[in-house]
Amino acid sequence: MERMLRLFAWGASVLVPAVLLTLLAFLLWRGVPGWSLALFFGDTPPLDAVLRGAPVFDGLWPACLGTVALVLLATAIAVPLGIASGVYQAEFASPRQRAALSFCVDLLAGIPSILMGLFGFALILLLRKTVAPAANTGLLLSAGCLALLVLPYLISTTRLALESVPHELRLAGACLGLSHGQVVGRILLPAALHGIFGGVILAVGRAAEDTAVILLTGVVANAGAPSSLFGKYEALPFHIYYLAAEYQTPAQLAQAFAAALVLLCITGGLFAVARLLRAHLETRWKTGRSQ
Amino acid sequence: MNSCAIRIEDLSVAFGGRTVIDNLNLEIGQGGPTFLLGRSGSGKTTLLRAINRLNECFPGCVTRGQVSLQLGGDWVDAYAPGTVVETLRRQAGMVFQSPNVLPLSVARNVILPLRTVLNLPADECEARMEQALRDVHLWNEVGDRLAAPAASLSGGQQQRLCLARALALRPEVLLLDEPTASLDFKAARQIEELLVELKTRYTLVVVSHSLSQAHRLAEQVFVLRDGGRVERLEEEVFRDKEALLAVMDELV
Amino acid sequence: MTPAGGAVPTRDGALPRSLLFAAAAVSALAVVAVFAFLLWFSLPVFRGDALASLLSWRWQPLRGQFGILPMLLGSFCLASSALLLAFPLALGVCCFAHGAGPVRAARPLLAAVRFMTSVPTVVYGLVSVFLLVPLIRDAFYGSGFSWLAAALTLSVLVLPTIVLLVDAQFRQVQAEIGPSAAALGFSPVQQLLRLTLPLSRRGLAAALALGFGRAVGDTLIPLMLAGNAARVPHSLLDPLRTLTSHIALVVATDSQDLAYASLFASGLILFVVTAFVHLLLRRWRGQAA
Fold first, then answer.
1. Is C15 part of the contact surface with chain B (CB cutoff 8 Å)?
2. Subunits with 3+ C-beta pairs closer than 8 A to B
3. Is the backbone of residue B203 left (phi > 0), alpha (psi -120 to 50) or beta?
4. Tell me: the pLDDT tens digits for C56-115?
5. How many degrees, rounded to 5, is the angle at CA C188 between CA C187 and CA C193?
6. CA nearest C213: which of C270, C169, C265?
7. Of A10, A104, C8, C40, whose CB neighbour count within 10 A is largest?
């Protein structure tokens, strides 16, 4: 029995990293040869594209811009909302409100991303039937649905970060005559900022990689650089998905792999930063206590 | 004995249904220091925190009875509905067992409450900070590194910074919860010397484990017995080391 | 926390409480809104013959047949098979990290698993399409886009979620019993087998439930790899279609009323299933606390 467990554990622990390594190796093998300026800008001179907004036809640049616009919009909506909700839940809510809120947040966290997309799609259907017959899916709608998707991460990391601030700091603030609101705003929130920031970064990564939401809410294959809040747009993950299914030439396939590598670097980098921040936070309170 | 500064009548405190202090009556004189002695778990800290209503920062706390403080020449009922708890806590400063500096610079530790609570202009804050740091003999030690993180100071320095932080708000009462317990001998001595200096200007209430400290510094000593009863020790008892030891032995 | 805290007028530095409350209310309402929309838009479904049409085994929109039962079964089959693979593997990894393997290997292993959570789903999908699918095609028959391909990839996708949950559970248990078990002379593996695993039952069940929620809710893997034929699969090499990929496909192609109704009915089923999983998890957590 013990031998079997040991054997099984070894087997699983060799297999899992092996799968990961295979994945990375395959991605590098197929993706790296495609890395060049032409990957991003096609035949358009890069400076023209970046500075003057010259249209790029067969490069990743419009998809990159689309993803950046999407993520910025989504975080602009979700971050204030999520942090404020987390602060309220951790510090001001009555026990009843707290229970209701945590219930909703749990539920929201469990909703599959395609349903967020479906929600956005239904919203447009409703608008078309009622006030705005011309309503269509687009950048802002996608950003709103993505914001809903990452909202629970933000709320729970904010709450956790506030709860992990040592109780002594609360007492210190209170016995100096700060009101509860001031203790939260002036002492707890600054102290929890690292943890909250880590949550924001994870949320950004999640928003950057999600495909299911935008699939239903306005992403298309060839829209060029995003031009308006209500227009169609391109995005990196969708671009990869699209090319994987519909590629016509080997060059397009190579572009899909190169794009996947770009996306992986972005999400991996964000993830690493979030981990570092968390580690920093943990050591910080540990040393603070031992003194 | 000096005139009364804090009067506690029929005070009961319970946390989540568990009574910690039961029907306690106490009169604390001006100046002091007044020492509260007792076994751990006898409710010394709870009693101290009942004075500035800090127990309310813990969940499930129920306080009954009356606590009155003489502040600015008037008697203030700490638990009256009209009393602003933030003002009360500012006027009755507190120092904890382990120095709980804020994760900010040395200067910001003192200035943040001044700015936030009193809304003072920047130059006034600077002046008060310097004065407070001089009062606790910290200015000469850290005056040149005010921007350094407060956590980089030694334990004794941190504790004096906490004292300075409370003093800068110009309180009338200082509540000290085992202020030397986490410090080494030398740092503890410095705090003790500070207490002697400060007793002329503030009413000091000290919770302590150290009998010899009470023996050396106290003007007034109360002993908390289990079940929340309190007993005032006569001066000849706590001035006499043997007699004090006998009282404390009886507690255990 | 302080009763007086809210009564004090907001001054410099204090947070505007009403604004925070508004934010919290909006967040809470978001869930309600999602649910309400799904329900509202799937209402036409519950009218007599539409319901009968949806709850059938045939999806042939051109012939007016809109059954979503194959997709329901597809979702269930795919999620269960992926879990069947991922859960034991995850358990093995956690056992390795908590005593069955060398201590020094635990940290890098868990770091690798954590990194896996940051790999975008579409990347897993892309690599599988061009690595796994040809392998399956060559080794067996057919196009390779099959239940098997999707299940294998999906198991890789949900594995990190399960590992991290089980790892947290093991940590908690071992922190409680570790020293005393060691003092009793248990070897690390014995401790794992006789104490940690049995004591972690509830945590394991929670990880399983959450893993199922993740697997059922994923869209891209089945969409890219499962072949998407709206039929009941008869073998692992058959294509299948899940509720999630059905939603994505119908939005992209169809525009008939009943097709849309099937869309929202699928969404509602998904919502109810995932909500049920999370309610279950909450209950377990509540009992544990």
1. no
2. A, C
3. beta
4. 777 777 777 777 888 888 999 999 999 999 999 999 998 888 887 788 888 888 889 988
5. 95
6. C270
7. A104
The verdict on a CB contact (< 8 Å) between A244 and C6 is no
Q: Which residues lie closer than 8 Å to A167 by C-beta, 6 or more apart?
A: none
The alpha-carbon gap from A55 to the nearest alpha carbon of chain C, in Å, equals 26
Rounded mean pLDDT of C161-182?
A: 83
Inter-chain contact A178–B116, Cβ cutoff 8 Å?
yes
Task: Kindly identify which residue of chain A lies nearest to residue B54, measuring between CA atoms.
Answer: A175
Architecture, CATH, for domain A59-290 = Orthogonal Bundle (1.10)
Query: Is A112 within 8 Å of C114 when comparing Cβ atoms?
Result: no
Residue to substitute from A165, A167, A168, A176, interface B, most B β-carbons within 10 A: A176
Q: Which of C4, C8, C13 sits opposite B116 (nearest CB)?
A: C13
Q: Is A231 on the interface with C (CB under 8 A)?
A: no
Asked if the C-beta of C3 comes within 8 angstroms of chain B's C-beta atoms, the answer is: yes
Answer yes or no: do C217 and A240 touch at CB < 8 A. Answer: no
Contacts made by residues C42-45, CB under 8 angstroms, sequence distance 24+: C42/C261, C42/C264, C42/C265, C42/C267, C42/C268, C44/C257, C44/C261, C45/C261, C45/C262, C45/C264, C45/C265
Using pLDDT thresholds of 50, 70 and 90, give the confidence band for residue C124: very high
Q: What percent of chain B has pLDDT over 70?
A: 94
What residues of chain A lie within 8 A of the CB of B94, using their CB? Answer: 175
**Domain positions in chain A:** 59-290
CA quadruple A224, A227, A231, A232: dihedral, nearest 10: 20
Give residue-wise pLDDT tens across range A173-193: 888 888 888 888 888 888 888
pLDDT score, position C9: 39
Structure tokens at A209: 């990689």
Pick from B89, B101, B116: CB nearest A175? B89
How far does CA B143 lie from the centroid of its chain? 25
**pLDDT over 50 at C2, yes or no:** no
Phi, psi values for residue B176, rounded to 5°: -120, 120
d(CA B122, CA B118): 11
Cis peptide before B33 (omega within 30 of 0): yes
- Find where tokens 């879990």 sit: C83
Is there a contact between C8 and B86 if contact means CB atoms under 8 Å apart? yes
For residue C240, the distance in angstroms to the closest alpha carbon of chain A comes to 17
Q: Which two tokens stand for residue A166?
A: 């040592």
Using DSSP bridges, classify how beta strands B203-207 and B34-38 pair: parallel, antiparallel or unpaired.
parallel
CA distance A56 to chain C (A): 23
Best of B48, B85, B89 to substitute, by most chain A Cβ atoms within 10 angstroms, is B89
Indicate whether B185 pLDDT > 80: no
pLDDT at C23 over 60: yes
Q: How confident is the model at residue A283 (pLDDT cuts 50, 70, 90)?
A: low
- Please indicate whether, in this complex, the C-beta atoms of C219 and A240 are within 8 angstroms of each other: no
Query: What pTM was estimated for this model as a whole?
Result: 0.81
- pLDDT number for residue A64: 86
Taking an 8 Å cut-off on Cβ atoms, the answer to whether A176 and B89 are in contact is yes
Chain A residues lying within 8 Å of B161, measured CB to CB: none
